[in-house]
Amino acid sequence: MNALHTTADILDIEKIRADFPILQTKVNGRPLVYFDNAASSQKPWKVIKAIEDYYTKLNSNVHRGVHHLSQKATDAFEASRRKVAAFINAAHDYEVIFTRGTTESINLVAHSFGKRFVNEGDVVIISALEHHSNIVPWQMLCEDRGAKLKVIPINEKGELNIEAFRELLDDTVKIVSVNYVSNSLGTINPVKEIISLARYNDIPVMLDVAQAVQHMPIDVQELDVDFAAFSSHKMYGPTGIGVLYGKESWLNKMPPYQGGGEMIKTVTFDKTVYNELPFKFEAGTPHIEAVICLSAAIDYINEIGLDNIARYEHELLVYATEQLSMIEGIRFIGTADNKASVVSFNLDGIHAYDVGVILDQLGIAVRTGHHCTQPLMDIFCIPGTVRASFAFYNTKEEIDALVEGVKRASRMLR
Amino acid sequence: MTINEIQDELIEEFSLFGDWMEKYENIIQMGKELPLINAQYKTDDNIIKGCQSRVWLHADYKEGRIFFTADSDAVITKGLVSMVIRVLSGHAPAEIMNAELYFVDKVGLREHLSMTRSNGLLSMIKQMKMYAMAMHSKQNANGTV
Q1: From A28, A354, A356, residue closest to B75, measured CB to CB
Q2: According to the CATH classification, is domain A6-43+305-413 in 3.40.50.150?
Q3: Which tens digits make up the pLDDT trace of A272-303?
Q4: How distant is the alpha carbon of residue A171 from its chain centre?
C-alpha cells in the first residue's frame, strides 16, 4: 500500500484525482464527470510521463538491434511482459502474448485454437452476456468449420444459468468462452464454477477479463483458466495494446495467427520454422511504446492496491444504485447479486440516447446504446441503456451530479 | 421561402434562446410536434439505422417537389429530424440536392451530425439528397426540367 494514496484503508481520492490531469476538464463550463470508464479509463501522469520517456529516451525497434537503444527498449519491453505475467500470476512470462487488445486476443484464439481443434459438428459455448468481440470471432469460426455456437442463457437479473450450462456440456464441446464481468450489466460471473465444470469434462475455458482486471485481483493459476484476454486502455494504460494469456501447453499446440517478422526462426522459400513462445504469436514490430507504458499503469494500480480499488468501487456502486433507485420511472437493467461498478438503466418511455444528450450538456459522460451487446439487449427487449461505469477516481459528489442530471433529463424529456 | 431563407429563419429563432436548456426544450418540443409519418410507411424498408436511435423516412413526389415525412424513436433526434424536414421538404429536387445545411452549425448543433452520435441524422440527410438526386435524373430523362 502506498502512503501517498491511502490513509489506513481509505483511499485519498483528492490525491488520486490529481494524478489524472484530464479530470480537470470543463465541459460546457461545468466540471467533467467521467462515468464511461468501462469503455475506456483515463490515464495517470505516471503513464503519460512514461510515454514521453519512451520517445525521449528509449525509442528503437526491439529484439533485433545490437545497438544500445535497441537493447534498452528490448529490456523495457520484456520487463513489461514479466510485470503483466506477475500481475495475473501467470506461471511463465512467455504465456503472455501482446496483442492489439481484447478483441484481437479473442480472434487469435478463435482462429488458431479453432484451426487446430474445432471441426464439423463440434460446439463452442459462449454466454448471453457477451460483447460482440466474444461472439463474432466464434461465429466466424463456427461458420468456417461447420461447428455450432451454443449460448448459456441468463435470468431476469442478468445472471448466468449455470444449470443450463451444465446441460450443454458434452464431448462435442471444444471450448467455452465467457466474460468474467459483463460490460453492459456489470454482472460478475461465477467463473470458478464454470471452469471447474468445464475442466471436469476436459474442455478448455477462455475468459474475457477486459472488465475485470482493473477491478479485482486475477490469478490465472488459481482460476486454472486456459486463456484470458484484456486491454490496456481499460486499465489506465495506453490504447492499442492488449494481452492474451494462454497456458503453455495450448499455445504450443496452436498454429501462428499471423505471419511476418519476429514470429520466425528461419525462413526459406520452401519452409519457415516458427519462433518459440511468445514470439510465435507476435508477428511484426509490436506497439513497443504501449507495451512499455502498460507497465507504468500496472505499477500505478499496484500502488493503490486492487483490494482497495474493489472496496471503494463497490461503495460507489451501492451509493449510485441507492440514489438512482429513488428516481421515479427508473428501471435497472442487470441487478445481479454480484456486480462490478457498472449501473445500466432506462427511464420509462424515454430513449437512452435522449438521456445521454442531456447529461452531456451537463458535462456528465455516460455511455448510451447497446454497448456492443445487441443480443443481450434483445433479450431485455430494449434498444439500449444508459450506462454509468465507475473508477476509483470517481466520487459520491459526482454520483449526486448524475442523479440530479437524470432527474433533469426526465423532467425535460417527458 | 427558399431553403436558405428557412435556414436563416431557424437560426434567428434559436438566437433567442438564452441557454442550452431552452434550446433543447425547443428541440424536444419540435420533436413532439413533428407530423407523424403515415403508419404504412413506418416499415423496415424505410428505416435509417443509426447505432443508437432509429429514423424512419418517407418521401412523396408531387408536382415537381419532394415532401418528406419522418419519425424517430428518440425525441431529441426527432426534433433534429423535424428541423431538417422543415428546411428541405416541399422543394424541387435540384434545390434539395444542392442545399448546403449551414443552420446545424449556426444553431450550435454540429455535434449531432458527427459520426460518434450515430443517431441516424447524417444518414437521413444523405438519404434525402439521394432521393432528390434520383428524382432529378428522372425529371431530366423525362425532359420536364
Answers
A1: A354
A2: no
A3: 999 999 999 999 999 999 999 999 999 999 99
A4: 30
